[in-house]
C-alpha cells in the first residue's frame, strides 16, 4: 500500500484539501524543517522575551485582556497570565465538536500560528502536531463564540489541553488530558507569554468548519445533479432542457457545468424520443440554474476560506524585522461569516429543489403514470401499502428546517465584553448553521435516492423504460446504490436504509462525474 506523504506546515500555503485530509482521513502532519522557518519562529519568541526584559507594554502579555487592556500586569506575572485566559474562558456549552471537526480546527490553528508572526514557541507547534498525529482531541463545546475576538471560548479548550488541563477524546474515550499525556510520556506545555492569546484569539473554529462545509458542498452539487438526471428519466422528462446550445446562451460556468453533467447522464447514444411534456416543471427544467449557483460560488468561497486558513488572525501581530508589536483586529471573522451564511443559503436551495423533485415523483397527479407514493405493491396488496408517503413527509420536514436556518447569522452582531467587542462577526454560528444545513440536505438527498431508485425500478419492471434508457455510468451508480436500497413492494421501516445512505454520503462513497 502506498504511504501518503505528511502535510507540511510552514511557509507554503495549505489548501482546503490538505486540511480535509488531516481532518477526515487522519493524514499525518509535520512542521517544516527549513532553516528560514525555524529561524522565523525563534525570532518571534526572542523578540517577546527581549521586550519583557525591557518592561515593554504588550497587549495580553503585560496588560489584561479585552476591555481590561488598561490594567497593567507585572512582568513577574506574565507567565501566569495566559493560564488565566485559558481558564476563565472554559465556559462553553452545547454539543462537542465531533472528531473530524476537532482535527480540522486544530489543523487550521496550526496553519495560522506557523505564519511566524504570533510569537509562539516551536514547542507549542510541536505539541499541536503530536496531538494531531496521535489523535488526542480536545473536547470543544460548539457554543460560546461570537466570532470576534475570534473563537476565544471554544479555542480555550485547545489551549487547556496543551497545558495538560480539561478533557480530551483519546481512542474513543473521554479522559483527563493529564492522564493521556502521562500514559504517552508527553510533557504538557509551559505556556509562554502571549501563547494562550495566540491560540485562542483567532478564527480557527469557524474556518475549520468552513473547510469541511466546502468539501461537502462540492460533493452535494454533483449528487444533486445525478439525482436530477435520474428524476428526469423516471418522469420521462425532456432531455433537451439540458442542451448544450441552450446553455451557451446563458454562460454561467458553474450552471453550465451542472447542465453538462446532467446531459452526460441522459446521453444513451440513441435518438431522443418525443417527451410526454414539452416543458418539465421547474424543479427539473431549472435544476442547473439552482444547483449551478452553488457551483459558481465555490471558487469565491475557496478563495476566502484559503486566505483565512493561511492567515495570521490573532492579536497583536509581531513584526520582528521592524521591532514592532501591531495591535489590530484580524480575529474578526467577517469573511468566513459571509461565506458560511451564503453557502448555507445555497445548500438549502438545493435541498428545496430535491424536495420538490421528490414531491413530483410520489404524486400520481404529476409523476406521469408511476404508482401512488411509488409503492411497488400490486393486485390486492396495493390498497394496503403506502410506499414512500412518510419518507416524503420527512423530506419536507428536513427541507423546512434547512430553509429556516438560512437567516444570516452575521447580521446579529451583539455588543459584548464591556463594549470592547462592540461589533462581532457571528461567524462560528454561521458555520454551525451551514454544517447543520448540509446534514439536513444529506437527509433530503437520502430520501430522494430511495425515491429515484424505486421509480427507476418501477419503470423497468413495468416496461415504461428499457435498460437501454440508462447509460453505463448511471447503471453502475444505480447498481451500487441498490445494494443499500431495497425494492419496496411491501411497507417496511426505512430508517436504517436512510441512515446507511447518509453515512455513505458523508463518506462520499460514490464517484461522480470524474474526468
Topology:
Layout: E1 7-9, H1 16-25, E2 29-31, H2 35-53, H3 81-88, E3 93-96, H4 99-113, H5 122-134, E4 137-138, E5 141-143, H6 152-162, E6 167-170, E7 173-176, H7 177-184, H8 195-200, H9 204-234, H10 244-248, H11 253-266, H12 282-285, H13 287-309, E8 317-319, E9 324-326, H14 334-362, H15 389-404, H16 427-462, H17 472-481, H18 495-506
Helix pairs in contact: 1-4, 1-9, 3-6, 4-5, 4-9, 9-11, 9-13, 9-14, 9-16, 11-13, 13-14, 14-15, 14-16, 15-16, 16-18
Strand content: 5-15%
> What is the CA-atom radius of gyration, in angstroms?
27 Å
Pick out the low-confidence regions: none
Biggest sheet, strands in spatial order?
A: 4-6-7
The CATH superfamily of the largest domain bears the name Fumarase/aspartase (Central domain)
Tally of discrete structural domains? 2
Major beta sheet, specifics?
Answer: 3 strands, antiparallel
Structural class: mainly alpha
N- to C-terminal separation?
24 Å
Mean pLDDT: 93
Write structural notes for this entry:
- The chain is mainly α and 515 residues long.
- The chain is built from 18 helices and 9 strands.
- Helices cover 52% and strands 6% of the residues.
- Helix 1 packs across helix 4, helix 9 packs antiparallel against helix 13 (287-309) and helix 15 runs antiparallel to helix 16.
- It is elongated.
Amino acid at each position: 500500500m502506498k504511504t501518503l506523504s505528511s502535510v507540511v506546515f510552514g511557509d507554503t500555503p495549505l489548501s482546503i484539501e490538505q486540511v480535509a485530509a488531516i481532518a477526515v482521513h487522519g493524514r499525518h502532519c509535520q512542521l517544516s524543517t527549513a532553516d528560514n522557518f525555524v529561524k522565523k519562529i525563534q525570532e518571534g519568541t526572542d523578540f517577546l522575551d527581549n521586550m519583557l526584559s525591557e518592561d515593554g507594554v504588550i497587549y495580553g502579555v503585560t496588560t489584561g485582556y479585552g476591555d481590561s487592556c488598561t490594567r497593567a500586569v507585572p512582568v513577574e506575572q506574565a507567565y501566569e497570565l495566559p493560564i488565566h485566559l485559558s481558564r476563565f474562558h472554559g465556559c462553553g456549552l452545547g454539543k462537542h465538536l465531533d472528531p473530524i471537526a476537532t482535527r480540522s480546527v486544530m489543523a487550521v490553528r496550526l496553519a495560522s500560528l506557523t505564519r511566524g508572526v504570533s510569537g509562539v514557541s516551536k514547542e507549542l507547534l510541536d505539541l499541536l502536531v503530536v496531538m494531531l498525529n496521535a489523535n488526542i482531541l480536545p473536547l470543544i463545546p460548539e457554543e460560546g463564540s461570537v466570532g470576534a475576538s475570534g473563537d476565544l471560548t471554544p479555542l480555550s479548550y485547545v489551549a487547556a489541553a496543551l497545558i495538560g488541563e480539561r478533557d480530551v477524546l483519546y481512542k474513543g474515550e473521554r479522559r483527563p488530558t493529564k492522564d493521556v499525556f502521562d500514559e504517552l510520556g508527553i510533557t504538557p506545555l509551559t505556556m509562554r507569554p502571549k501563547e494562550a492569546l495566540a491560540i485562542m484569539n483567532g478564527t480557527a473554529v469557524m474556518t475549520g468548519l468552513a473547510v469541511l462545509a466546502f468539501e461537502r458542498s462540492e460533493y452535494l452539487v454533483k449528487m444533486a445533479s445525478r439525482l436530477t438526471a435520474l428524476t428526469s428519466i423516471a418522469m420521462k422528462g425532456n432531455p433537451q432542457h439540458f442542451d448544450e446550445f441552450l446553455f451557451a446562451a446563458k454562460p454561467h460556468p458553474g450552471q453550465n457545468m451542472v447542465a453538462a453533467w446532467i446531459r452526460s447522464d441522459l446521453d444513451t447514444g440513441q435518438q431522443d424520443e418525443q417527451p410526454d411534456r414539452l416543458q418539465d416543471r421547474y424543479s427539473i427544467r431549472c435544476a442547473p440554474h439552482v444547483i449551478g449557483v452553488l457551483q459558481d460560488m465555490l471558487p469565491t468561497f475557496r478563495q476566502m476560506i484559503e486566505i483565512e486558513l493561511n492567515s495570521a488572525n490573532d492579536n497583536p501581530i509581531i513584526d520582528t524585522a521592524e521591532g514592532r508589536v501591531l495591535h489590530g483586529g484580524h480575529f474578526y471573522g467577517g469573511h468566513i461569516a459571509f461565506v458560511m451564511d451564503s453557502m448555507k443559503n445555497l445548500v438549502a436551495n438545493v435541498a428545496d429543489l430535491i424536495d420538490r423533485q421528490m414531491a413530483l415523483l410520489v404524486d400520481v397527479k404529476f409523476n406521469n403514470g408511476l404508482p401512488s407514493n411509488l409503492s411497488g405493491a400490486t393486485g390486492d396488496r396495493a390498497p394496503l401499502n403506502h410506499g414512500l408517503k412518510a419518507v416524503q413527509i420527512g423530506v419536507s420536514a428536513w427541507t423546512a428546517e434547512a430553509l429556516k436556518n438560512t437567516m444570516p447569522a452575521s447580521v446579529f452582531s451583539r455588543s459584548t465584553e464591556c463594549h470592547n467587542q462592540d461589533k462581532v462577526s457571528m461567524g462560528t454560528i454561521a458555520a454551525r448553521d451551514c454544517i447543520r444545513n448540509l446534514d439536513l440536505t444529506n437527509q433530503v438527498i437520502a430520501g430522494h435516492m430511495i425515491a429515484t431508485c424505486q421509480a427507476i425500478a418501477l419503470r423497468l419492471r413495468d416496461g415504461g423504460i428499457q435498460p437501454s434508457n440508462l447509460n453505463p455510468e448511471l447503471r453502475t451508480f444505480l447498481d451500487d446504490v441498490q445494494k443499500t436500497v431495497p425494492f419496496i413492494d411491501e411497507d417496511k421501516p426505512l430508517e436504517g436504509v436512510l441512515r446507511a445512505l447518509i453515512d455513505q454520503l458523508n463518506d462520499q462513497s460514490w464517484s461522480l462525474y470524474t474526468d
